[in-house]
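User: Predict the complex.
Assistant: Input components as received:
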Amino acid sequence: MRELRVKVLKNLEVGPQTYLMELEFPFPEEIKPGHFVMLKGWSGLDPMGRRAFAIADKKEDRISIYYQVVGRGTALMAKLREGDSVEILGPLGNRLFRLDGQRHLLLGGGIGMPGLSLLAKELKALGKEVFVCYGARSSSLLVMKEWLKENAIEHKLFTDDGSEGQRGSVLQAQKDFDESWVVHACGPKKMLKALKEMAEDRKVYLSLEADMACGWGVCLGCVVPSKNGKFLRVCYEGPVFPAEEVVL
Amino acid sequence: MDLSVKLFGISFKNPVWVASGTFGYGLEALKLYDVSKLGAVVTKGLSLKPRIGNEPPRIAETPCGMLNSIGLQNPGVEAFLKEIYPQIEHIDTHFIANVFGETEEEYLEVCLALESAEKIVAYELNVSCPNVKKGGLAFGHDLKVLGRLVNKIKGKVKKPVLVKLSPNTGDVVLFGKVCVDNGADGLVAINTLLGMKIDVEKRTPILSTVKGGLSGPAILPIAVRMVWELYQALGASVSIIGVGGIYDVDSALQHMLAGASAVQVGTANFFDPLSPLKILEGIEDYLRRHQLTLKDLVGGAHSEYRPDRCPC
């Protein structure tokens, strides 16, 4: 966990209200699939808090994140230019993706896909079998499809409106992969909840998203209920959880 | 520069502490910096029994601040002593246990359980907790109840007792005075202000508990005013610890100039985790520039006070 002020290397609109930001990060060896950063790209106290973003990729001394403009913080981030600096804290998260097992099915829903891309890349580098099912509401929101091609990750696209790939949800693909495949998923809560219910009999890992004030375990704001009636911190006991461990 | 400060018979290495509920039990931050640089760590609130806390959503951002309704989630004092305490024992600074209960007896039992834990040098009573025997009214919102609580604990424990005052009462000085009259060694001002936020698209309150505690820079002027009032009325007889809205050296100095002998950095730990260290450096720099000592700072703005002027 490091506290850094780093330069924005790229901040591109890659889809409707969706951006790809590349940032300096001089310690790439510290980043593992599942890690995230807390980022603040504006000065002043309003908005006050940093925002949490999955680390979507790392290359040499840079990392990339994807974000959607959903509020005032992300709207300010969208205005950042190359050379501007931002504050980041990271890498964060203690329970990360497990890379053991030979076959891995990754289910990415919308802006959840950047939570899985580094995992796909690392698994492939380890010589594992990787298949990605990537879905979004509509074709223009499949902002990582080029990335998947560039990195030669085997994948299939899905859209709710049928504008690209198969019409429907990534969840339907899950049944086509037998239990020798470990499932990793990241996406809207509704999708993860449905997956948890339909895939009770197989190994599923979920990377969760939550509003966070600190990102490093002390505010207790980002909790998710566990199966044994406790609250777990998404930032600290997660962000990756075995599906059976959490109540969504 | 020597920034040490002696309060209620204990020597602290400096006056910059971290506030309860914003720093866990000090373990998480070890990955980021040397926690022993802090003057003290005030622990997350401890109760007799474990508490799971409130359902999410527990937090909501507000202008220059945030609301929280964590619900005092904690493992309970027994698990703290068994599992967490051995890990903090080697951290070379003082710890202050923030303590709460649903009854007077619970407060007392938690304090007594911590009496032999050397690392814990004092207790900070969170009196914003609902009193079960009084229909849920907070201990700190009833003068008689508050006085009795402080009296009972002071009569039974050896370590200094600080009371973290609620700002959600009519007059913070009345409540501070009752604590001092009953033997409190220090007053910590202030706890969070009760607030709420509504999601206008859904037309519902955001927090699961509807209302929550407002913290962050938004509450700084209120906290400074309350520290000022407490110092004016009680500064001669009790140490005041300032908390509320501190996020940089200027806000920390305002608390001290109003009358705080030490300050606690709270919500700023979330959005700027290194802020306590920056504040510490900033205070040193300020003292050097103005050729002042820490003692000069505490209450240092009061000479300018003009009681004849109406504040409104």
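Chain A touches chain B through 30 residues (CB under 8 Å).
Let me know if you want any component modeled separately.
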